[in-house]
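Predicting holo structure, adenosine-5'-diphosphate bound.
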Amino acid sequence: MQITFDQVSHLYGKGTPFERLALKNISLKIPSGAFVGIIGQTGSGKSTLIQHLNGLLSPTSGEITIGDVVITPTKRIPPAKRKDIGLVFQYPEHQLFEETVAKDVCFGPLNFELPESMAESRAREALELVGLDYEAIKDRSPFQLSGGQMRRVAIAGVLAMQPKVLVLDEPTAGLDPAGRKAILEGIHRIHREQNLTTLLVTHSMEEAARYADLMLVLAGGEVVMQGRPEEVFQQADRLRDLSLDVPQTVSFISRINQLLPDTARLPATLYREEELIAHVLKRLSVPKEC
Amino acid sequence: MNEENLLTFRNVAFSYDGEEGQRVEVLKGVDLTIAKGSFVSVLGHNGSGKSTLAKLMNALLLPESGTILVSGADTRNGEMIWEIRRHVGMVFQNPDNQIVGATVEDDVAFGLENMGVDPQEMRKRIDEALHSVGMENYTLAQPYRLSGGQKQRVAIAGIMAMRPSVIILDEATAMLDPQGRQEVMHLAKKLNREEGITIVNITHFPEEAVDSDRVIVMNRGEVLMDGQPGEVFSQVERLQEAGLDVPFTVRVRHELVAKGYDLPFGLHQEELVEHLCRLLLTK
Ligand SMILES: Nc1ncnc2c1ncn2[C@@H]1O[C@H](COP(=O)(O)OP(=O)(O)OP(=O)(O)O)[C@@H](O)[C@H]1O
Ligand SMILES: Nc1ncnc2c1ncn2[C@@H]1O[C@H](COP(=O)(O)OP(=O)(O)O)[C@@H](O)[C@H]1O
Ligand SMILES: [Mg+2]
Ligand SMILES: [Mg+2]
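Done. Tokens:
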């Protein structure tokens, strides 16, 4: 589903001493099927922006369209359309509430009136996708899991809804390296197979580099940079000014290029680790032309 | 309370109570000593027992069997519990859950008030603590206006005001942007170096462990590896099998070495850059 923001602003605590303009006149267009990486300093407005997508927040002014649904300050997203937008909150483990893991993951599908057997098979699928063993975990209480395990359960709950737009707010914070990779690879796979439109908020420049085909950079409630990852990550100084960084691959390449003669430089666009390694191996294996 | 070994675990086991009254064993046979003034990193897959280990260190949990000593005091000794908790401070993941005060200085004062420190001494300690974390210009700021990294630094100031010997960071950088992460790591290193605070940094980022004195790797409730960063991170496959990873530089070198190229092991980017450039230029 295509998503557009047309001059969207959001003001928290209007008329109180805590009034805060968290989004300032944001306009953007996300093509259907895009995998969008959203980065920005803490407090830059990332969570505020994405909570507009499922009706948790309404714009103070401006208009948002998601597919054929239009959201304005006075028009909310129709309840029936809500299940199309799967939002994994920041700290999603705070949303867990059922007695068992299986009940928690089934809650969404059952709530949208899916038969019990189907809800269960979706729960199984979703839990395995996030790297949990369904049989081993289904009857445990979500409150007696480690932080990382809770996070996986919460993500599974959203995946079990099979949404068309998937929005993830720092989903991998606190996951171990294998868990991070498993979850993002799983999400990327469903993204492609089910032709989802996916928005991923992350503090990991490496994750953004690996999965995003479009990047949005937020600062002070505005979109200050956008484009393909290779365009955004060319601007290392600008990103550092915004409390951000470039992926390790990019700083590694730029350091190498400072030491190599002009003719031997590595392309600065190799921001995915395996592409960098493949390129280096290729360079090392061909004899140098003189 | 003083001893070279600030924290000692002797054959420690711990279980949580499961729903049906069964015991769920999460730590078994853990032997550890953490030397005073050291910087120790703890890695391990989700559920491997890191946070449980941390809570045992400051007597939030008590061992089921075995012994835990904090500067020689047994954590099971009820009379010592407050002294132990004051000595072993903890910072958690979520910066928004740890700040309780309406202003930065109120927040730092919180623990001192509970301890009944007199106002003059309190003023002195608050100023010192905020200075040590580089937040002295934010004394009266409202915490909600701070960045994530700043909030974590205020949380650390609250601990520093209690004059601790150890600070345990339980994934304190997990929710932070790249700059916030750097701020917190720089601060931890500075407090370790300049004030002799022992640091136990629990993290999922192998990069954060590169400069520590020691790396402990937990796996399914047991200590899988315990050594200097170089010893631990040279075992790439073993770490990956445990659901973990190695720093970027180690990973890149590992891939190139696997293809038959000769590059020395190193933990820092600069070493690999130098050797790789040489290799690229001689090709
Ligand atoms: N309150 C509890 N009751 C029962 N079991 C628990 C409780 N807290 C944790 N556990 C279990 O104990 C084990 C260790 O948990 P712990 O929180 O120490 O892991 P961790 O290494 O800190 O993981 P993470 O990286 O996800 O934070 C896990 O299997 C977890 O499910
Ligand atoms: N419920 C709220 N009430 C008032 N201000 C808020 C609220 N939530 C967020 N803010 C403020 O809005 C700004 C953007 O916050 P947020 O969207 O959470 O940023 P991010 O997700 O990028 O860290 C920040 O200045 C934050 O303090
Ligand atoms: Mg946020
Ligand atoms: Mg933990």
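The domain at 34-55+76-229 of chain A is CATH 3.40.50.300 (Rossmann fold).
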